[in-house]
Specification:
The protein is α+β, with helices and mostly antiparallel strands. The protein has helices spanning about 5-10, 45-65, 65-75, 140-150, 160-170; strands at about 25-30, 75-85, 95-105, 110-120, 120-135, 140. The protein has one domain (about 5-170): Hotdog Thioesterase (Thiol Ester Dehydrase, Chain A), CATH 3.10.129.10.
C-alpha cells in the first residue's frame, strides 16, 4: 500500500478511538520502512517522514474519537508550518514508531511534536503548526477545536523553544 493510500485510510476510515484518550495524550503510529520509501542512497527519503507524520496526525485525531466530530462540521487540519531535525537514517524494513503529541495552541494554531523512532532510538523530530479550516475556507479558532474535542479552551504553556520557533516562522498569534 502506498503512503498516500495509508494517509487516505487514516483520514477517511480512521482507526477506533482509545477510551479515555484526550487531545493532549500522545498517540503512537507503527509501520515499517518499505521499498518505495527509499531514496537513491537506500535510506528513507525525507518526504516520506512528512507523509508518515500526516498519517500519524490523523491517527492522533482518531485516537481521541474526534474524526466524526470534525467531519460532521466540515472541519479539517492543514499544516501552517513545520520543521524537521534528522538524527539517524532509516533503512529498509526497519520498524518505525511515530509518536505525536499536541503541545498546546494559541487563538489560531495548534502546535504538535512528532518523534520518529526505531527500536527506541530517535531518528527524526518534527514540530508542526496546524490550522483547522472549514469546507467553506474559513479558519476555525484553535480553542474552538480544542473545546469540540473535549479539551479545555485554555492551552497548556508551550515549551519556550516551540514558542520561539512559532514566532520565527510567523505562525504565532499576534496580540
Amino acid at each position: 500500500m502506498t503512503r498516500q493510500i495509508q494517509l487516505a485510510l487514516a483520514t477517511y476510515r480512521p482507526r477506533r478511538a482509545i477510551p479515555g484518550q484526550t487531545i493532549l495524550d500522545p498517540s503512537v503510529t507503527r509501520t515499517r520502512v518499505r521499498p518505495g520509501d527509499l531514496d537513491i542512497y537506500f535510506h528513507m527519503n525525507n518526504a516520506v517522514y512528512l507523509n508518515l507524520m500526516d498519517s500519524a496526525r490523523s491517527n492522533l485525531l482518531a485516537d481521541c474519537g474526534s474524526m466524526t466530530l470534525l467531519n460532521d462540521r466540515g472541519w479539517y487540519p492543514v499544516v501552517a508550518a513545520s520543521t524537521m531535525s534528522y538524527k539517524r537514517s532509516l533503512t529498509l524494513f526497519q520498524p518505525v514508531e511515530v509518536t505525536s503529541q499536541v503541545l498546546g495552541w494559541d487563538p489560531r494554531v495548534v502546535y504538535l511534536e512528532q518523534r520518529i523512532t526505531t527500536r527506541g532510538t530517535l531518528s527524526a523530530r518534527g514540530w508542526v503548526a496546524a490550522r483547522f479550516l472549514s469546507k467553506d475556507g474559513s479558519r476555525i479558532p484553535a480553542p474552538d477545536v480544542a473545546a469540540l474535542l473535549g479539551g479545555d479552551i485554555i492551552s497548556p504553556d508551550l515549551p519556550e523553544d516551540v514558542a520561539a520557533w512559532a514566532r520565527a516562522v510567523d505562525v504565532a498569534h499576534r496580540v
